[in-house]
Write the structure tokens for this entry.
Amino acid sequence: MSRIAIVGAGLAGLTALQGLKAAGHQVTVFDKSRGSGGRMATKKLGDASWDMGAQFVRAHSDAFAHQLSQWQKEGLIAAWPATLAVADDQGIHPSPDQVERYAGMPRMTGLSRALAGTADEFITATRITTASFRQQQWTLQDEQGQRSGPFDALLLNTPPQQAIPLLTDAPELISLCQQVDMLPCWTLLLTLQQPLPDLPDAVFVHQSPLSWVARNNSKPGRDAEPEAWVLHAGHDWSRAHADVPRETVQQQLLQAFQQLAARGTDQPLTIASQWLHRWLYAIPANPLDSGFVHHDNMPLALCGDWCHSGSLEGAWLSGRQAAHWLNQFMPSP
Ligand SMILES: Cc1cc2nc3c(=O)[nH]c(=O)nc-3n(C[C@H](O)[C@H](O)[C@H](O)COP(=O)(O)OP(=O)(O)OC[C@H]3O[C@@H](n4cnc5c(N)ncnc54)[C@H](O)[C@@H]3O)c2cc1C
């Protein structure tokens, strides 16, 4: 049986995990966070929760549509029939789009948790800092100096900038990682004392620091939770404000939301709690078109949305392709 290590429990790594387990390999997954999901993260504060990264999942390809219907049957996702609007200089008006959107159940991380549960070992709160390839085997070391291995193959599912330090024994892959520009995204999470029923559940916002706002408690299974809003700043605004003090960013995003809300409702905005998060590597501006990356003669692959396209679907497709390649490289038991 081959022992395989996956660094990163994002959707790409967890999808690869499914393919590698199906081929009979023994797989250990590492993540620096306390849980799984990466950019599908959910933040909890008291009895409120917010999907603070990916908001919903949707399918363009038949393969992913099939996967979504499987996950729906398993209760891992459910349709999110949100009232959707666009805010621009004409006002707030209903969005014409008819896209079927799904949310993870009971949160986005519900899906990743179920997938991560299939690993032989899932080691969290562990940032891998070194990957060494000696005598045809990989050994990993974390920031505490703890070593893990040996592994017969290694799959990196980190954003490209975070993969570079792990490529000292495969430096020829570094330039591919350097090619991809990952855009940042400031995110403000709010709970309100009073709901804002006049506002739609989600709004694509133009001509504002904000690009998207959504009422998290409008998602399936969250209706008993407090009124909780997720505010995503636009990528250009986030980059321009990358080094601005957090309090200033928070103030400006709040002000932008107040202005937006005032256009859709007369009710006052009464903030109960707020939380600011900066996604340094939110979305690839120029993903590779290779689907995944592999070394020509080492059991090493890289996957993630940055190798395919910037969405959960892109991550899923990338992880699937990487597992397929590793399964061909590593003979099944
Ligand atoms: C604000 C925002 C909104 C979005 N909205 C949507 C949306 O609505 N719909 C959609 O489809 N997509 C959306 N996306 C994009 C989607 O979230 C990503 O495309 C997808 O989650 C990427 O998955 P991944 O597996 O490639 O990487 P990630 O989810 O980034 O996973 C990488 C993992 O690697 C771990 N890691 C990194 N370095 C190390 C290390 N050294 N050691 C151990 N672990 C490490 C990280 O902790 C992380 O868990 C959004 C993204 C953001 C940020």
Remarks:
- The chain has a mean pLDDT of 96.
- Residues 170 and 295 are 8 Å apart (CA to CA).
- The longest strand covers residues 271-284.
- The chain has two domains: 3-61+109-180+287-329, 79-106+182-284.
